[in-house]
Fold:
Amino acid sequence: MSELSWADVQAQAQHTLDTCGLFCPEPVMLLHNVVRDAAPDDKILVLATDPSTGRDIPKFCQFLGHRLVVSGERDGKYYYLLEKTG
Structure:
């Protein structure tokens, strides 16, 4: 995954999903809905406070074939930018 500035991460996202305050499995369940409604090649920014998203979201992308563009932590929150494939 390449390093992107926070401004670049935000600018690339066509969709933002704020799951802050939610715990496993809710962030991934909500992400599934956003991905289903997104167009191919759309980028989705997920914000989370649950540390288990660090495991769950990469596995979600790997299992369903989506691309995890970048992930990180900022201001006590985790963020993930993923690209919907096909």
About this structure: Residues 26-37 form the longest helix (12 residues). The longest strand covers residues 67-74. The CA atoms of residues 47 and 79 lie 5 Å apart. The radius of gyration is 12 Å.
